[in-house]
Amino acid sequence: MSQPIVDLEHVFVARGASVILNDVSLRIERGEHVVILGPNGCGKSTLLKTLTCELYPLSLSEDSAERLLGTRTPPKTRVEIMGRQRWDLIELKRRMGVVSAELPGKPTLTTSGYDAILTGFFSASTLWPNLTVTEEMRAKAEDILKLVGAEKLRDKHVGEMSAGQTRRVMIGRAIAGNRGVGESSDPKMLLLDEPTNALDLAAQQDLRELMQQLAEQGTAILLITHHIADILPEMHRIVMMRDGRIIEDGAKDALLNESQLSELFGRRIFMSERDGFFNAW
């Protein structure tokens, strides 16, 4: 069997004096489309930063294990991404494209849409003079602009783009980074953190259609969200988080219902469904 993309066991992560992730275990196979769902502050974004090695797990002492778990025997903690426990972060970014709600590392405002895609090959904020852009990179950037429906944004500056246009280009940039050059044309995984934040209704619909297209083409997607409407019909696994823990992990058909959502968010939730998409209020 091939190595899973994500394999976590007994992971604890602290930010400051607070433990944000509390005994999290998670395995995601290659090609899966998975949703991490939970309320604000439940640890979703901390989990994402753990997967991208921006945050590292705690090494528990006997005293901390007793405080957190009620036992003086610390569990064996493991974080493996694509079969490896240690990564060069630039190489990892090229394997696992990340689009955050805050769009960290966004290219400079005067960078064009086309050049923004090119920066993804280098995980850079701009095309610095020491970076060599090959003809293969240029050809792939043109293909990616078409893939994400951003041909009209080719020569537009990022600073002049709407939030929806910027998010579309940033997805293209992430795809460029983890496709690389001289490798398979298929990205390894795309991680989307609250992708429809700050988008109007039309831009949300456009972005979901793009995500659906990428999923249908075989792009593995890990979606981190509290918006039920972001969950694509192609996503069949739901991981529910609350208070830093995974409380449910299973099939969408079993978990995406009013009863489970009401328990997850702590109040009465109503749902509707149309064409495989859900809405909740």
UniProtKB/TrEMBL annotation:
Domain of life (superkingdom): Bacteria
Parts of the chain that traverse the membrane: none
InterPro entries, A to Z: AAA+_ATPase (IPR003593), ABC_transporter-like_ATP-bd (IPR003439), Metal_Ion_Import_ABC (IPR050153), P-loop_NTPase (IPR027417)
GO molecular function, one term: ATP binding
Domain ABC transporter: 6-268
Keywords from the UniProt entry: ATP-binding, Nucleotide-binding, Transport
The UniProt record lists the keyword Lipid metabolism: no
Family matches, as SUPFAM superfamilies: P-loop containing nucleoside triphosphate hydrolases (SSF52540)
Protein family membership: Belongs to the ABC transporter superfamily.
Record protein name field: ABC transporter ATP-binding protein
UniProt organism field: Granulicella cerasi
